[in-house]
Amino acid sequence: MAPRRTPPFRADHVGSLLRPPELHRARQAFADGTSTAAELRAAEDAAITDVVAMQRAAGLRSATDGEFRRSSWHMDFIYQLDGVSRTEERLHVKFRNAAGDLEFTPLGLRVDAPVGLSGTIFGDDFAFLKSIVDPGVTPKQTIPSPSMVYYRGGRAAVDERVYPDLEEFFADLSAAYAREVAGMAALGCTYLQLDDTSLAYLNDPEQREMIAALGGDPDTLHLRNIAQINAALADRPAGLTVTTHLCRGNFRSSWVAEGGYEFVAEALFTELNVDGFFLEYDDERSGGFEPLRFVPRDKYVVLGLVTTKRGELETVDQLRRRIDEAAKYLDLDQLCLSPQCGFSSTVEGNDLTADQQARKLARIAETADLVWGAT
Hints:
The protein is an alpha/beta fold. Helix content is about 35%, strand content about 20%. The radius of gyration is 20 Å and the shape is globular. The protein is built from 11 helices and 12 strands. Helix 5 crosses helix 8 (about 220-235) and helix 8 (about 220-235) packs parallel to helix 9.
């Protein structure tokens, strides 16, 4: 098969990477007041330079900054939107893993002023990434999708004095994201990924019950979220590839939701105006490949077959068999390979080592070379 010159690439990855010990120490020093913001930024620059080199050595044709400047894959972005404030009230999210339950209690948010965008969020971060990648490597920027601004809080998180009509909130939110997309493209970004847990969570009946309890409509929320993203991307510049990543939760090797993609699949694949879908498929929680039958001929699916939740290395044969299974429902030329999620969606990271992370990325590139002839 011909090599892919544009993203998503045959061997790719979701975005976040394990923070090295020296970066954890630099963050702690800054939090303690024993170092300056400039010193923290320099430590981040050094760590990002190293992790970009690691991605190149693994054989990848795209590179992220590992989300090394963030504490959380989504909240660090959302809090920078005009009109969104951090609250002291904590969310209570139940994660689970093979050993039992784990509670994640991040600070919440409230929309208490008109939503807008004063400047390109992560713009300086992307500019640095773009400046250090090797020729032939595409710098990739990840941001949370607009769905993440309201999925957990629902109507209660949006001040009715500011937005008595939620449709006005949704319109402002899409407009802010449209400006972010345009700002990224103006900085030279050609590969943008919108990370979205809601479109995967809604496959889980327990999550749909939660949405109903918040006063939402669990049967149509995925349609709202798809329309929200489409509105944000309606005027995206030419030459900008946009993908989305669907995740069922990723915190310290634990997850939130379970269930295959069937509930959202037809609308997701036929109506969401992105170029590719990064889909979790590392274990039975994600169901089978049958929903891929809805994917149009002009879209790509990046199969997340390599788990980021454990350090054990998948074999090439295991991955090739799974790719063959997926190819029963979608042409092999429309498939790519990646980990199922990030390695460190929050600063804490998952329960594996940096060496195991690097070996998994290299195994993805190795397998892609064997299956497609080029990454």
